[in-house]
Structures are given as structure tokens and as C-alpha cells.
């Protein structure tokens, strides 16, 4: 039984705390959040208790960090120094330099760090990756990742998010690395403000396309939009020498209506809470099992850093209009 | 080059005449129809000429009959006695006794007769049948045929049509025999008037289900409706010991729209002229090639009779509410 | 909090006991099973305890019966006389007379009885029914229910099962009543032994088709097979005056492979444990909420009786080859 | 009746000559090809005659050019100077300078020139474009074009083809311009040799991705491969403010096989002859109707130039690794 303290009782903290509470191999040691009512409500809902931030780093075997991004690196370091295993939501930090520093601290402490790139644990993407690795399509040549949110977050959130590439596309960049099985060496990004001018005024973009090329010549395209009327659009298409694998969206039911307008199936599941509900559980399970077995889980801190470096490059490429050679 | 005279310049005659005119192995010898303007228009459109009914039985190698049902048997007999090969639209006649008489005349004359069950020549159903015969699903066990018209014909037509089973379901009964590869020995029909009370007042039904059972125990269900808002619905599902084969509807394009209402693909092609355009050509081609090669084409006159016998039994079963044992 | 005692620690008892244990509105009072190791294992897995059969009727608010069919009616009666609410797996009994007797006892006791027709709670079928009731396809005219098991149960089970119609198709007959919203007045069944001769030797069939007709003329076809190579095949197609609604199978993932053989998506979920996992939870929730609210849940004991009467009629029709007029 | 002389009796010339011969509004004036047997065979097959190259520019109202690329510009100029309407296969020339010169000659002559970008006439893409123009998805934001050949052409062909971007992707670049309804102002290409090293040795690539950005910020991605095991892969996905439109591949039939491996539908149609058979007819019809009506058909010579300019830029971008700002 791994005891886990949860930091953060917001949207993402609630998901993780509930999954910890339900997991047969873990106990929820307590929840901390500067907003006391949130912590209390979540503690009540999970049969757990409210703890102080200091306690979060002392009373359990592991710390799960679901607090705001700006706190991640500090909390990881505190937990690592206390010898705790850490699961941290992405990103570790918006500054690659700070991430490197943080990872050095974790390495020095010799503790475990896993970063929450939940999409690797989606059954659809995971199965696609497994079949790819099994050779079902020969060697991978082209990868197309489609990732569109149903609607944009508030501009206030966007202002501190690090921008679309670091906040939203970072997931796709990690997924690209995961599926490509190789590091990109060339990157190009193009981006626009098409959804809401206020996003542009806040210095960000809402529509973007990125191209990645690996050393062996594999090519990957990612397209992002902050809006999609038909649900949360999350798809992967992998084209190889012997075939193609696609992982599509999920729907609430298989019901289809036919009439003069045609045959209509359901929109995609609304957003990440629905689409990745099972992925969050699988992700947590991977963390718990790895810690229990003394194995290093992935995505690792280094995966977190590499995705951020790509997101930084994409941000720069979109601004300058120039392709970037990654070392 | 097979010269073919076409009798009938109505909707179905026009299809056949055009296909004869385009066929590289045939010449259109002429068109006859009691309604002179129709004959003239069709002759003009096909670069052919108007001929008399008598000429239709004398000037060509073969006769293609697309006139009203009540004339079929007589014309077949005239053509057979004149030594002509005959392609006749279904049904040969609404009376099984008359059909038997007519087939005897054809047999005595030793000429060729093919009946126009066009669905056997649909690429989808034909491919399903070929894969079934190739053993792709092992031995056939269950067959489900869905056949729904976009809307009912005029009541005036229904009054002389012989009823839904002889006019509409006869196609499905032939298709069932074709796919089952075995004769039904048991039949049950249930029918209702749900589309238009005027159809009921005319003594017919507009919604029907039939069950067939063969000697070896294969089971088949057919469902018919005189209305379908989403196009002409023509599907076959064959379930066997090793798998299932389905043949679905066709659409005009593959375009799909996604929005908050879901993912919408196009309705099925509107009606038989669209869905079976290629089937009519393939059917004619089979006739022409068979005559040229001196082979007997199928569906034969006997196939026409057997489908009618099933339609008669279905009509009776639906009226009496009793299942019927076929000899 | 509704306390529930579970009778039966076999496959179905395990599903229900776990769902009771997880349900926030219920407590699992204990588990009884004549096979002690099964009861103990399930009690351990659910954090519950083993109880005697007598205790099952005394220590809780409600009794959940998942024991063999032959015990259902007796246990329902014992529970009803003890004033307990009862959830019982289908069927109540294989004898309609015994079911009527049992229902009379329940009525006299004035207690609650819900029967486990789980398919009504499948999200796909439930959503189809909701849209039908909302008028999305106008008035229902044709209903086609496809229900095929991946493989047959052991012959030993078949011998005491009451036969395919009472054991397997009874689910579809209930679903037909549920969706039709009207009682069938005419029934015809055709059945064969195509999967395994040993099933025939045991006096049963393994492949069957049933037609139902309601007083208003709605028509329904059900097709059953004891084998399907591509998973557990559970589909409904409802055709109405204004459109068609279909509910299809579910797959484990949305992954699709394309190569020279074509585009291949996954087989249907393997069997009822997978397909109806969520339905079992929803079903139990309905029971718990109804008891808590003092409402009578459906499917009721009467629904259980009516489905059995249809299954009896189908059994007779398939044997005699005659359609049956239901009173 | 428009009389048309066809230059070229190779693969593409045969398609066009047959379509001219079948078209009710045109007559096939003759066929010329330096390879006499080809010209004779095609003349025989179409009921036409062999003519000299000089005659091709004199005996008909219009000239259809399906000869090798190196001859296109010269033949267009000869035909224009002779006052003939011209339909020319893409590309006009591999040199943008030569194309500009040629277009100036056509402009001076005041004659009609249409370039054979057949995909605009595909029913699927055409319908997608029509629905986009009708506002079905609001304003276009993201466009993804997938275009993969079943296999590479011979290396000998590749050596004179101008390279993947000018030979293959030029079709997608034209389609992008057609659907975007706006000129790209920024372009980036990444390309690899993954299919066959011999292609790389010939100085070309076989796998490529291009990103386009328009002045208003619309983004487009194109992905190309010289191989696809599952047929000729030709798809468009257009994402807009109010929804998404997709146009997919076509299959020979709708037949689907289900077994333990899953549900398998057919591969895409094999190659352009099958997929674009109807598009070639529609394209020709547009030319004939435009000439008859005195209208300028599109795609115009200018469309041919603009697509080539994009292909040139893509070729350079892929070589240098730099994004290109288009004037």
C-alpha cells in the first residue's frame, strides 16, 4: 500500500484524489489546498482528511502535485529532498532552465518523478502504440496528430498559461515523441488568432500547426484549435511502410439517427474529463505500480523537459516564421 | 453483335434501351411502345428507331421486355415462338399458373429467357455472395435482408401491382434464394398498413416482415417498408459459422459534416435508378454474353416462378396469420 | 443507505455484490452461497462478510438474488414475506404458473420486486429508447433486434436452462416489449440446430428468429445465434415514420488498421460482462433509488412474467411450426 | 458540338479521348501521337481517326493536350496562336518562367486555356467545397489534405518529373488553393526518402509534409507519401468556426467482413484511374460547356502557374530547411 498525499483540490486534484482513494494499492493520506473549503470538500468526498502543505511532504510515501504550474518545481524539489516519490501534473515549469534545475535536484535526491502526460495512457493511443511497436504497419513514416479543444479557456488563464504551445500542444508534442520513438531534429510552427481576438491581445494564438522531423526522416504534423463544435477532438493517424493505424474519438453511445439529413452519429466526448477519465486511472496505476516495484515510471521528468523544449521552439518558430533546428 | 429490340419506353424501358445502345456487344434494333411520343423520344435519345410491336418479334436476335406486367407472359411466348432470346423484367406474370404455362412454351421453343432481378447484379450484393461462396464466413446460418423504398407508389399503381409481396418483396425473395443457395421450406409473413391508410383500402399492406427457413435449417428474415426518410435502404447481412458479411447502402459522396449535432454522413442514394444504375448494366451484360456464348443466363424463368411462389405464400401467410409449409 | 444481502456468489452474484459494495447509497450486508469458498472469496473481495441463507432474509433492507434459477421464486417469496425489497436475476422461474404464484405472494406482501433485465440499462439501448420516446423518428414501425452470443454455454447448462427462448432470447423479448411500448399479439418462431448437434440432442436449438406483431401493427424481428466469431453482437434498429435509430456494438478501442486487406476496426466487446458492465451498475442504481424513494422499479415482476410468456410461445411456435395468437 | 483534337495516346490521353468520344456535346476530331500504334489503337477504340500533329492544331475547335510535360507549353502556344481553345494536362511546364511566357502568349491570342487539376472535379471534394462555400462550417480555419499514392513510379519517370512537389503535390497545392479560397503567404516543407533509396539517389524525395498559411491566418497541412498499402489515399478535412467537413476515400463496394480479427471494410480504390474516373468526365464537361458558352473555365492557366510557384517554393524549403515567405 502506497500512501499518497495530494496537493491541490482543484479540477485536476479532484480527479487524482478520487482515483487514489479508489485504487486498491494506494491510500489517500490527505489533501492540502490553500483554499480550505476546496480541500475540505474533497477530503469529505474521498473519505480522507485535510492536511497542511508541510504535512504533504512528510506524512506519506508519495506526493501527487495538482496545484498551479508556478508551484510545481518548488514542490517537486521539496518532495524529492524529503525522499518522496512524486507524481506531478504537466508542465514541471514554464522555464526550461528551471525544469533542468528541478530535475537535477530530483536526480541528486535519487527519488522517483513521473509527469502527468495523460494521453499516453488513453486506451486508444496506447493500443495504437502497442500495435505500432508490434510491427503491424512496418516502420513509421508519417504521423498526424489532431487535437482540438471544444472551446478556449478564459483569457485570464491564457495570460499565465505560457501560451498554446506550452499549455495545450505540449500534450501533443509528448504524444508525438512517445509514438515516434525518436527525437525531432527539426521543427516548424505556424499559428493564428482565429477563435477570439482577445486571445491575440493577450499575446497568445488559438490555432496552430507544427511539423516535426526526426533524424531518420519520420515526419509528424500536429494541428491544434481552441475550438471544435463537435466535442473534444483527439485523434492520431500513423502511416507506415506496411499500413496505417488510426485512433479516433470516443462517443457516449453508439446510437445513430438516419433521416433525410443523412446518418448522424454522436459528437465526440465533450472534454478531457470524459475522454481521459480512464487514462487518468491508468496513469496513476502506472505510478503506483512503478513505485511499488522500485522502477522508474514514464513519462519521466526528462520527458517533461523534452516536451517543454519542443513547445518553446514552437513558440519561437510561430513568432519568427522560421523553422528551427533542434540540437 | 447481338441485335436487341426493346418493348416499352417507360421508366424501365428507358434504362434498358440506353444500356443496350451503349453496350459494345449489342445493337439497339428499335423501340416499340403504344405511346408513340415515348417511343419516339427514346429512339431519338438512343440513336435508334421506332418499330411496331410485330417488328419487335422479327427484326432482332433478342427481345427485351420492359412493358407493363400484364403483357409480359404474352410477349415472352411470342418471342419464344419466333425463336428469339428474351430478357423480361420481373415478374413474368402475377399468376403462378400463367407463369408455368409461359415457361412451358419457352421450354418447348428451346429459347433463352432471363428475368430481370437486378439486385443479383449489384456490386455490393454480388461481392457478398462471392465471398460467401468463397467460404469467407464458413456456412451460412442467418440472413437478414432490409429493403425499404423511399416512399410508396401511387395507390393506382398498387391496385394492379399484385400487392407488396409480389411487387416489392419479390426482389428480396429472389435475393434470399440467390444468397441462401437453397430453397425455403417454411415461410411466415406478418404485415401492416402503417404508411398510408389508402394502401390498406386498396387491399394491400405497406410494411412487412417475412421469415424463411430452408431444409438444412438456414434462417432468413426480410423486412420491407414503403417509406424510408433516409433514402432507398437496401442492405444484406449474412451470418455464418466463421463470420459475418454485410453489404450496405451507397451514398452520393463520402462527405461528412461534424458539429454539435454529431457526425453526419449522407443519406442513402435516393432510389433504384441511382442505386442500381450499374446493376442494370451488369445484368444486361450477363444476358448479352450468355446469348452470345449459347449459355442459359440466370436468373432464369424458373427463378422468376420460384420467387413468385414465395410471394404468393407470403401474401397468404400475412392474410391468414398462419405459417406456410412449402412443398 | 440501503443495506442489501446478496444470495449467490457465482459469476452474476460477483458482479452485483461488487456493484453494491461500490454504490454510495448502499451497503453490502453480507453474502451467502452454499459453496462456502465462493462466498468467502467474494466477501473478502468486497470487504463484506459471509452470512447464512436465513440471515439473508433478515439482516438487510433488501435481498439481491443471483442464485440458480430454480431457487428464484422460493427466495423471492421468502424475502417478500419478510418484508424485504427484492432484486432478482431473470428469470423468476421457468414455469409461468409458478411465476404467477410468486407474483401473487409479492403482491400480497406489498413489497418491491425488480427483475434483472440488464439490457434496458445499456446506455446505447437506453439512449435509443429515449430518442424514440422524444419523437426523433416519429412513430415506430419496424424493430430489428440482433443478439448473438460469442459461443454456446456447456450442454450441461443448456439442459436445465429452459431452452434458448427462455434462457437467451427472453432478454430480447423484454427489450422488444420495452422499445415497442406495446404488447405483441402475434408471434412466430423458427429455429435450428446449426452450431452444435449436441445442443439438438439436449432438446434445444442454437439459432433462432422470432417475429412479433403488436395490436397497432408494429412489427419486430429478433435473430439469435449461439455463436458469433466477432464478439458479443447486440444491436437494435428501430425504423419509424420519420427516420431510423440504430444502437450498435461497442469496441475496446477506436483503433483501426488499414492495409491491403482493407480497413479493420475492432471486434465487438467479448461478452456480457464487458458489454453490460455499466448496465449492471445502472440497473442496481435504479433499484436502490426506487426503494429509497418508495417507487416501484421496472422491469417489474410482471415484466418478467410477460417476457416468459413470450418465450414460452416462441418455444411452442418453433416446435410446431405454427404462428401463435397471443391473447 | 465542340470538335476536339487529342494530342497524346498514352494513359492520360486515352482517358480524355474516350471521354470526348462519349460526351454528347463534343466530337473527337482525331488523335495524334508520335508512337503510331498507340494513336491507331486509341482511334480504333474511340471510333476516331489518326491525325498529324499539324492537323491537331487546325482541324478542330479545341485541342486537348495529354502528351509529355516537356511539350505542353509549346503545344499550348501553337494552339493559342491558331485560335484554338486548349485543355492541357498539368503542369504547363516545370519552369515558372516558361509558364509565364506561355500564359502571355495565350493572353495575347485571347484564347481559352484550362489546366487539368482533376481533383477539383471529384464529387467528394467538390461537395465539400460547395458546403464550405454555403457556410456549413462557418469560416475555414484549418485544412488537412492527405494524398498518398499506392506505390512510387519508376525512377526513370521520377528523374524527369520535376520532383515530388512539382509532380505529385502540385495537385494538393492546387486543391489547397481551391478550398482555402485565398493565397498562401507562408510555406514550409519537410521531406524524406523513406520508401526507396533509389528515389533519393535520383535527387527526389518520397515522403513529404507542407504547411501553408494565408494572409488571414488560415492554416493548411498537406501530407504525401509515395506508398500506401491500402489503396490510393485521397482525403480532405476542413475545420471551421462552426464545424468540420471531411471527404474520405471511396471503395469498390460497401461489403464488410466481421470475424475474430474485427470488422473489415474494403481498401480505398486502387489509383487515380479508378478514384477520379468520374472527375475526368466532369472536368472535360466543364471545359466543353465553358467553351460553348464563351466563359473562361477554371482551373485556369494562372491556377497552373500559382500551383507551380508553390511547388517550387516547397522544393526549395525542403532542401534548405527554411520556411519561405511568398510575396
Describe the structure.
The structure is a homotetramer of 327-residue chains. Chain A has 327 residues and is α/β, with parallel strands linked by helices. Helices cover 41% and strands 25% of the residues of chain A. Chain A has twelve helices and 14 strands. In chain A, the strands form three sheets. In chain A, strands 11-10-6-9-8-7-14 form a seven-stranded mixed β-sheet. A five-stranded parallel β-sheet of chain A has the order 2-1-3-4-5, with helices on both faces. In chain A, helix 4 packs parallel to helix 5 and helix 8 packs across helix 12. Chain A is globular and about 55 Å long. The N and C termini of chain A lie far apart (42 Å). Chains in contact: A-B, A-C, A-D, B-C, B-D, C-D. Strand 11 of chain B pairs antiparallel with strand 12 of chain D.
Amino acid at each position: 500500500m502506497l500512501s499518497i498525499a495530494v496537493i491541490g483540490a482543484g479540477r485536476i486534484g479532484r480527479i487524482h484524489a478520487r482515483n487514489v482513494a479508489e485504487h486498491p494499492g494506494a491510500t489517500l493520506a490527505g489533501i492540502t489546498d490553500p483554499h480550505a473549503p476546496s480541500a475540505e470538500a474533497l477530503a469529505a468526498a474521498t473519505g480522507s482528511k485535510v492536511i497542511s502543505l508541510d504535512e504533504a511532504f512528510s506524512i506519506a510515501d508519495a506526493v501527487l502535485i495538482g496545484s498551479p504550474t508556478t508551484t510545481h518545481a518548488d514542490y517537486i524539489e521539496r518532495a524529492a529532498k524529503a525522499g518522496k516519490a512524486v507524481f506531478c501534473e504537466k508542465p514541471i515549469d514554464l522555464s526550461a532552465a528551471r525544469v533542468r534545475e528541478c530535475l537535477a535536484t530530483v536526480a541528486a535526491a535519487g527519488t522517483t518523478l513521473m509527469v502527468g502526460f495523460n494521453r499516453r495512457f488513453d486506451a486508444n493511443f496506447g493500443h495504437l502504440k502497442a500495435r505500432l511497436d508490434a510491427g503491424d504497419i512496418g516502420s513509421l513514416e508519417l504521423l498526424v496528430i489532431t487535437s482540438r479543444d471544444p472551446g478556449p479557456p478564459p483569457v485570464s488563464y491564457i495570460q499565465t498559461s505560457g501560451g498554446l504551445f506550452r499549455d495545450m500542444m505540449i500534450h501533443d508534442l509528448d504524444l508525438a515523441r512517445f509514438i515516434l520513438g525518436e527525437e525531432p531534429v527539426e521543427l516548424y510552427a505556424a499559428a493564428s488568432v482565429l477563435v477570439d481576438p482577445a486571445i491575440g491581445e493577450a499575446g497568445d494564438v488559438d490555432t496552430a500547426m507544427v511539423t516535426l522531423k526526426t533524424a531518420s526522416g519520420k515526419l509528424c504534423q500536429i494541428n491544434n484549435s481552441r475550438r471544435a463544435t463537435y466535442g473534444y477532438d483527439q485523434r492520431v493517424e500513423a502511416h507506415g511502410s506496411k499500413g496505417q493505424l488510426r485512433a479516433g474519438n470516443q462517443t457516449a453511445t453508439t446510437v445513430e439517427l438516419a433521416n433525410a439529413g443523412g446518418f448522424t452519429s454522436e459528437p465526440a466526448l465533450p472534454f478531457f474529463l470524459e475522454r481521459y477519465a480512464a487514462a487518468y486511472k491508468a496513469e496513476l496505476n502506472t505510478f503506483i505500480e512503478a513505485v511499488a516495484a522500485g522502477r522508474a515510471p514514464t513519462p519521466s521528468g526528462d520527458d517533461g523537459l523534452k516536451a517543454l523544449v519542443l513547445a518553446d521552439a514552437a513558440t519561437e518558430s510561430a513568432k519568427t516564421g522560421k523553422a528551427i533546428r533542434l540540437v
